[in-house]
Structure formats: structure tokens, C-alpha cells
Write the C-alpha cells for this entry.
Amino acid sequence: MKLPHATLPDWQNAGDEERLEKLRLMIEDLYRYQLAEHVQRVIEMLAQHPCADEKEAQDVRRIIEMARLHPNIFSPLCEVGHITGSALIVHPPTRRVLLNHHRKFDRWMQFGGHMDNDLAPHITALREAREESGLSDVWLLPSDLRGLKDPGGLGTAPRPFDVDIHVVPQRGDRPEHLHLDLRYLVTTDAPDAISTSDESLDVRWFRLDELDALNLEPGVWRMIRKAFPTII
């Protein structure tokens, strides 16, 4: 049986709204075709995520809902909000945490950013950790700090150890939106090799007893408590 071809409206005769709607649907189809498997993998990971508090549980549920609704959830072009990848860099031998004084947000926080062309948030987390900290020697840890340098044992798609949604205020023509942040625990064997990128005002290692003075966001504190559960 001969199947009918998909048809487009007569472009010259279509109105502006009809053209924009058709383009939107075509782009969504393209995102679904290219990224549906990767987005579904994230949804499945989040469905099994152990949450530390009700805020994290609510954020996990909301990200799952948004990922099912928006096929371009990995892209910054998803204006309502998009998935980002972050890294909390720790040095277990000295019980220290590496934070950056973010230039745009003007606060001390973990390293992270947009997924760009990455197909998994842990890849974004490692890339951002390297770019923003200056550390080339970084790798993933499980949340109990007993990981190996070879992350292969964590599987091909490591699970985040923390999940958080935070609001990014409007800047210029970019409207207010949400960062749906999947966060990974990262470490290094070369802690002295740090440097400050254009994204940061400062990058610094902190002992755990120095953190109270930084006025950290609750979500950052939650990550640190997860990383050092017997210390804080």
C-alpha cells in the first residue's frame, strides 16, 4: 500500500502564525528524533533518585514532568527552563570543597552550566568542572566518597548525587527561567592546579569549618552534607 506523503501548507499563501507553528512542530520533531532516548534515560534515572528532603523530591518530580513535556529540555533554547549539569569538587584527603565565586550570580557556588551539545548531564558536569576550575585531572565519585579514578564502574550514565531547581533572573533580552540542575560529585589528584576562568571572580578551596562565612545557598549546603555525611 502506498502511504501518503506528509504535506506542508502552501508556504507563500500561509500566514505568519501558521508558518511559525509549523516550524515549531518541525523543530520539536527533530529534537524528539535526535534526543528522545537520552531524555528518557534522564527521566528513568530521576525516577529512582534518592531525595534528601522534600525540596529535592519536588524538584525531581517537576523536572520529570518538564522533560516529558519539552523535547528540547537539554537546550538553552527551551526558554521555560532547561537541564544543566553541575559538579561539586571535593578533596577527601584534606576534607576540602572547591567553590567558585560566580561572576554573573555574585555568590559562591559549585561549577556547572548548560549542556550545549552534550548528550548526558554528567558529561556537562565534568566539562564545566575542567573549564571553570582549571583542573584537567577530575573524575566522578559516588556520593559516599569511595569511588575509583576509573568511572567505568559507575555505568555508562552515572546518576547525579543531587538534584535542584533554581531560578535564573532575567538578564537583558533573556527572560527569567529555570535551571534544572543535575549535580555530580567530582574529585581530583591535583588540587593545587586551580585557576580562575572568565566565569568566576575567584576559585578557592575551603575547609568545612570555613563555609559558614560564605552564606551558601541551601542547595549547596545539601550537596556538601551529602558529600561529607559524617563530618557536617
Observations:
- DSSP finds four helices and eight strands in the chain.
- The longest helix spans residues 16-47.
